[in-house]
Write a structure and sequence with these properties.
Layout: H1 2-42, H2 93-126, H3 130-136, E1 138-141, E2 150-155, E3 158-164, H4 167-174, H5 187-190, E4 196-200, E5 211-212, E6 218-222, E7 227-230, E8 235-237, E9 249-253, E10 256-259
Antiparallel strand pairs: 1-10, 2-3, 3-4, 5-6, 6-7, 7-8, 9-10
């Protein structure tokens, strides 16, 4: 065991001696190279004013030379008023500001037009289609409705009652005491022309379709739950809480009525 330890100790000392010798050799070479580099740089000419030399006496040396760099020429991209580098910027300030304002205004107008067009297209996509608009209004020839009769038309998917009332029906409905009605309305408030009554054929109780020229009051009768309406479309008996609805209509010419 003693011989093995002795051999290991001798081997370790030899390796340490080799490492130390190598380190000293490298250090000597680096020092020699630093000295040669410093002497070479000191002998360089210094007559060029734009030549910059930076020397650092250390292991790593940097050398920065900027004399061979060319400044790019941007004259091709400049306006004629700004090509003179010695001119003051205040001399051509108005022209430059005008150019900027011109482009800003053009971009603003273009953006506003694009935004308006986009909004109009979006709103147009939300509007009703042509077939729906066609059903929004209906024209009725009043000469086709005989006196004393009620005709049914389809308007917006609902039944529309148009009644040509007689003189006796008009006088009877106008004489009704409004105080006795569940939904008080005079006959004049429900018609534009006394001889024509226009109401929706939808019962105000549960949405059934009443029968015309029936009931206890000679107007409309809903057989589903027994609601009675008079010749003015007012509820008079039964569970219906409100009068029959009167839609918007007008008379653009004689014997022509437009509903909607």
């Amino acid at each position: 065991m003693a011989s093995i330890a002795k051999i290991a100790s001798v081997s370790a000392r030899r390796q340490a001696a080799k490492f130390q010798g190598s380190f000293l050799c490298n250090l000597t070479l680096d020092c020699s190279f630093s000295s040669i580099a410093a002497i070479s740089i000191m002998k360089m000419p210094t007559n060029n004013k734009h030549q910059a030399v930076h020397v650092q006496n250390s292991k790593n040396h940097e050398r920065m030379l900027h004399s061979d760099m060319e400044v790019p020429d941007f004259s091709y991209y400049r306006r004629n008023s700004t090509k003179d580098s010695s001119a003051k910027s205040q001399d051509n300030n108005d022209s430059r500001m005008g150019f900027t304002y011109l482009w800003s205004g053009a971009l603003a107008v273009t953006g506003a037009y694009a935004a308006t067009s986009t909004v109009n297209q979006f709103l147009g996509s939300l509007s009703a289609s042509a077939d729906v608009l066609a059903m929004a209004k209906i024209e009725i020839n009043l000469s086709d409705v005989p006196e004393g009769k009620s005709m049914v038309f389809k308007w917006r998917g609902k039944p529309l009652f148009v009644r040509h009332r007689t003189a006796d029906e008009i006088a009877r409905e106008q004489a009704v005491d409004v105080a006795t009605l569940r939904d008080p309305q005079t006959d004049q408030e429900r018609v534009q022309k006394p001889e024509f009554l226009v109401v929706l054929g939808v019962c105000t109780h549960l949405g059934c379709v009443p029968i015309a020229n029936a009931g206890d009051f000679g107007g409309y009768y809903c057989p589903c739950h027994g609601s009675h309406y008079d010749a003015s479309g007012r509820t008079r008996k039964g569970p219906a809480p409100l009068n029959l609805e009167v839609p918007f209509y007008e008379f653009p010419e004689e014997n022509l009525m437009i509903v909607g």
